[in-house]
Amino acid sequence: MTAVPDQPSRSPFIADQRLLRLRFRPEDRGEALPLLRVNALPQRGMDGEEDNPRKDRNESRWEPLPVRERLSFLGGDSSSGQRRLLCVTAAAGIGKSMALEQLDAAAGAATGSQVVIWTHFSDLPDDWESYVDLPHDGKRHSFFVQRLKTQFAGARKQGFQHLPRRIGDEDAIRDWVLALLRCGQLILAVDGLDEVPEKPGIAKAKQLREFLRQFPRAHCVVGGRPNAITQILWQTLFSRSGKESDASSDWKFALTDLFDDGQVRRALGPERHDQLRFLQGEVQFSGRTIEVLRSLDIETFATLRSLADVYWHGIQKSLEMDSIKEGGKFPSWMTKEQLLILLAAIGVTILMWNRDPHFTDDNDGLPSDLNESIPIPVESDSTKTSESIEHVVDIQELYRRVCDRLSRIHSEWSDLKQIERLSLTKDQIRELVRLNTSYLECSFFRSQDPKRLEWRNVTQRDFFAALWMVNGASDQERAWFHERIDQARDARDTSIAEAWRMVCGMPSEAFALQGKLSNQRWLHLIRPLYQRPDEEWHRSGRPTELMYRCWANLLRRAGFLTTASWSDEDLMWATTAAQHYFYLDQPGDLPSGVTMRDRYAWVVVGGYLREYVMLRKTDPNALTITNEDLETAMRDCNSLAGKQVRVGRAGEKNNVERDYTLPYRFTLCAYAVTNRLYDLFDEHHSSRFGKYTDWSPYPRGPVVNLSWYDSMVFSIWSHSMLPNEWIWEYSSRAESRNPSGGTSRYYWGDEKTKLGDHAWIDENSSEAEDSGTASRKIGEHAHSVGQKTRNDFGLYDTLGNVWEWCMNRYESEEIDWGSGKPTGDYPVARVLRGGSFGNGSFDARCSFRSRLGPSYSVGSSGCRVARAHYP
């Protein structure tokens, strides 16, 4: 196969991006159209799990293509005599162009007889005769000839052997191309089906179809987003009969997938890749995302800590790098800031659609031309029928609400300068709908409500809704958002939950759209997250994930966290400094290096950290519980900053024995956090789990069903912290050694027969605690703390009873037995240690490591808190 390159490949890792090919089930009757609509395609969730309600119906139809078969699948086999008509699709930025580039680049290194000509859809001729220089209208047109002439010189330098000798002879080139077409040795690769306006796009597609009909052995590979394929070009190019109602096609279809961790590492480099762990696995790594991340300067890249950070900087950079597909320039009728505010208004309008606190049916005061219908391509939500797609839909309702919101908010907030001169017209709205850059996709489809549109990229919608909430939200909108904290906490409404996450992680630069007041709006918005549960707030429990996601931003605004590119250790010390300061009745001078940046942020942080202190002062029962289960139970563990200790164990495949230096002096609680202690923080926790008392029935039993977020936010509230896993392991083993001098399996040595005396595991946890009557069997469950034999540091139940969350992320040392290579880290997962009442003896070892995503919990997951001490 020979390629005539138009431009070099832009991607360093295109050769192994995963490609999925469409395989029909018998019930599909060969109808591809319903499976290609944007709301039917499989999508990957944030943690690498499939997160699509249509997974069971559509996922199995997309079959992964082995890398070794990729080139032959893209280009076909000229010796087979079968024509290759292939369409490569995906959402914005997932790698359609890269797949076509791979066909081009890989073919260039081959020595076969096929020739690949790459072009953009907009560059195709307006009549099919012009493809091959056939006489037309008394003139000769030369699309292939002129294109190839300009590329032959470079192609010869690359060693292509099958080019005509007389590269300046147009007749020779034309004859050569015709011979290739008749022999089935030419592949036309066309990118950008979605990047040409509808009318000229349909016209070009008709001529491309006619060209392929005239030359039945010509191969064609095209790439474009699903909406262009299914909404605009299906009848013209892809439908087998050329009828809109025909959902079958002679074309094959492929879907490009996201990139795995190894590909991302090769693309970004080790330094940037390692910094991605702070994003907690939130980002879907498409080709465009990686391209944007690579374009950021290293200082900006180092500050990325949330998905909102990536979206903010990605969209900013994308608007600099790209332009509106039609016209090639940024719209002259608005500034970049006005565009962001407008998109934010659209995002929040769609999010609040059926529950909008502002919307009325009154049209008064709205632009008159919004009473007209605005035709744009929109998909039906149905994936079960082959009925024709309606290409025109009335989006008057959406923009009527947007204009209502803009005019209303402008009158309420005098600092909303960006929309002062912004008035929408029908033509401008059409232009806005076509706005598609590398990282910004204004693509919509119709929901079940015939008047309502959905944003194709729902995460982008949630980002812009959050941007509105921190810049232009009215009192009613903020109240609407607050009323749904419980829904976000329980993920009962995933859209609300994602919008709240975006608000929590929104970078401070995003507040600059509306000046200083935006920072105060953000603080007003997130303050209820930190209020105590009562009849108004957090009726289903504290929103711990949202609280943790806000915490670093709060500490930065308050002045305790002084760097934008903070690490977990930086955040820990900033939290410790705030805890020490607000523990005092009358705080004195600020800690060294701390400057109060924002008084209101200071109030929010102080109010949360003073809650534990005031509870101990005003509630005698709380004072007793905190003293018995925490304050008087802290153990020194013979710790000293800089002390070298041994962790791991010989033969442990994922925790080899080695030296570890203690980073600071610390104390660790003798007990896991108990039910009665955690109830002081969140009395609603146990009620969220139907079988909670089956797992932990005793007041002084360890609290269970804790997520990592629950554990972290509780530790901050109680003026504590979670230990990292090496501090936990050192403290659990209590410096015990085996007879050969290595680290021991348990804190009493290596004798497994003594495990029942020291730990609650599955073999002994079914016995009920003796309460004056005979013991009875009630099933495996957690037991009250402090009943088993303690270790030499005075710690109870570090093995068995409940798994204990640790602060750090799970980093793998394990070697894959097949490849002999490391299995890789788990940037999302956090560490669990110690085993539990429901696990066997294998897990109840000091060196055993487990992991779980930070938002997940199990019926045996708890925690134990520590406190770090300044040198």
Q: Find the CATH topology of the largest domain.
A: paralog of FGE (formylglycine-generating enzyme)
How large is the count of helical segments? 31
Q: How large is the share of residues in beta strands?
A: 5-15%
Helix content: 25-40%
Task: Estimate nothing, just give the exact number of structural domains.
Answer: 4
> What is the terminal separation in angstroms?
68 Å
Strand order of the largest sheet: 1-5-8-9-4-10-2-3
CATH architecture of the largest domain: Alpha-Beta Complex
How would you characterize the overall build of this protein?
Helix 5 crosses helix 6 (170-183) and helix 24 crosses helix 25. The longest helix has 20 residues, at 599-618. The protein has 4 domains: 2-8 and 18-41 and 62-256, 3-Layer(aba) Sandwich (Rossmann fold); 263-321, no CATH class; 543-618; 620-869, paralog of FGE (formylglycine-generating enzyme) (Alpha-Beta Complex). It is α/β, with parallel strands linked by helices. The chain contains 31 helices and 21 strands. The radius of gyration is 31 Å and the shape is globular. The N and C termini lie far apart (68 Å).
